[in-house]
Amino acid sequence: MQHFGYLSRADTMTLFERPPEPFGPESTTEALSIALGATLYIPANRPSLPQDITKQSLAGATAAVLCLEDAVPDDIVPWAESNLVGALQQLHASRGDRLPLLFVRVRDTGQIPRLVRELGPAVAILAGFVLPKFTADTGPAYLDALDEADERSGRELLVMPVLESGVILHAETRVAELTRLRALLIRHRRRVLAVRIGATDLCALYGLRRSPELSVYDVKVIADLIADVINMLGRTDGTGFTLAGPVWEYFAGPGRLFKPQLRRSPFDEQDRAELRGALVTRSMDGLIREVQMDKANGLIGKTTIHPSHVPVVNALHVVSLEEYRDARDVLEADQMGGVRPSAHGNKMNEIGPHTAWARATMLRSGVYGVAADGVSYVDLLAASLSR
Question: What is the dihedral angle through the alpha carbons of 104, 109, 110, 116, rounded to the nearest 10 degrees?
Fold first, then answer.
């Protein structure tokens, strides 16, 4: 797999100083966690599931979650399980080499060993499981089920726990819960690919739903939790994990109350006014702002529920040439500390404090590539959305 693999060689050479590098199941867990990008959720009860997975892979999705939980009505769960197993067996038999990283979001622990048993050899194309409503109390049963699945499949499956329960949101239990969760996840670090934040379920606990003109960071009760999750689980001291941004729910915009959140000048400079208009009409300006806020707070990748979100999220993860040069300069400096001016003459690079940022930036540059000089996210979006 490779981000932006749908671009022509000519477009790739024009847009990237350093093109994205391929990745796959043989990559390190750290590299895969960074590479998730826009992780597309697909309901497991779709009759055309094999075709849908293949189609979205060709369109640029490099990670997909086949959902058996909230996306599937309770009364058809057994049928959805059978549909999912049949789809994965069909994809395995066709030996497709362009499949995204595939995960299954289960609704209970019993589904994990049952699905692995029913998949048989087709489990080889499954990267792992997404574990909903993950808490310090429910987590051990999920992880025990994974041990059973590993023994049956002969391989180690990865997990992405989702934090979306009241015990982690409510102020009186949050710190104790996060402390217990961190200890549990550290014990099972080898199989934890990323930790996801279930903003929709968390908002539901207070009867809230953000509008397309607001970010999840404007919903204070959720923003406070995100800050604490980053504080406890996102540290760069060797105890932290990759944290993914919460879902963006909108793919078409109603009437607007506030001004659009995209400046005109970057689009006018590239003669792309029509692209800006299309993004605003489909509420993508809110998504773009939220991804930028995710990145500023240390979250990477994002849960997505619509194919149109995938190129937007992934384009915003491409490393700019200025970021790349700053990160390289920090890492190539001797480790005696000190401060150096950026080669771009607009900031300081402080060797000690900026080293962790530089390492993360270089990891991201390998997976998403480094934009060519003068290329912005506007160019990347235009190339991705015009194909």
Answer: 40
